[in-house]
Design brief:
2 copies of one chain form a homodimer. The first copy, chain A, is mainly β. Chain A contains no helices and 9 strands. Helices cover 0% and strands 34% of the residues of chain A. Chain A is globular.
Chain lengths: 140, 140
């Protein structure tokens, strides 16, 4: 196993929301009251069994517009600290641009999950949904 | 954009720990007191700037041994519920086998991060490290 090994991730769905540009996007889910739809592709329907309105889910996104070759950024709150390693931040810019958000499920309609807490632009690919450990789904 | 779009993830490092088989691995990080080393590859050293002992980090792993074609599993605690969709669980088996753990940084030695909370087998590839939103790193 070497640093040049690669893995292939395939989207299980896509976000639909009113945020069309990065400038409009809340800096993270804990600051967002945006609602939107997680469209899950038909091949993955079975994986949603047991998902219900009222649960909190952890959602992984592939930030398809993020720059991947940046290793240091200015933290958004305190620029006086200077450049910080991306691995100490939640910056979307990182070698593997995977975002992790905790979203509240408002409604489940077949392959469409209505959620609140959206901090992604419309069209962002979804890689995974998990039980949240912090709140939400019962232990499984 | 279609369901057949794919993305390429490249490991930024690898876990080293005493857990050699899946049977030995704690079911998740909140139940683990295992310590281990996150070896970060030299190309990513700059991204660690600001990372310190005492911080809690969110670490994303690619579960290279996980089955990817399973969409329902028996939840480990309550089998009486029957098969549940993988997207309502933390099962390692899922279409994109990416795990998310919160680990405590015990020491930083150049490219080696000593951590506790390991719930991965030795040799598991690391995809990303982020500031934890639940605890740990100061806001950035």
């Amino acid at each position: 196993m070497t640093a040049t090994q690669q893995f292939t991730a395939t989207p299980i769905g896509m976000v639909h929301c009113r945020l069309k540009s990065k400038a409009e996007v809340p800096k993270n889910y804990s600051e967002s009251s945006e609602t939107g739809i997680l469209e899950i592709y038909p091949a993955y329907l079975e994986g949603l069994k047991g998902l219900k309105a009222g649960q909190t889910i952890m959602v992984l996104f592939w930030l398809h517009q993020a720059q991947r070759d940046l290793l240091q950024v200015y933290p958004r709150v305190d620029r006086s600290r200077g450049l910080q390693g991306v691995f100490t931040t939640r910056s979307p810019m990182r070698p593997n641009p995977i975002a992790v958000s905790e979203l509240k499920v408002l409604a489940v309609r077949g392959l469409e999950l209505e959620v609140s807490g959206i901090d992604m632009i419309d069209g962002t690919p979804i890689l995974d949904i998990k039980r949240s450990l912090s709140t939400g789904l019962e232990r499984s």
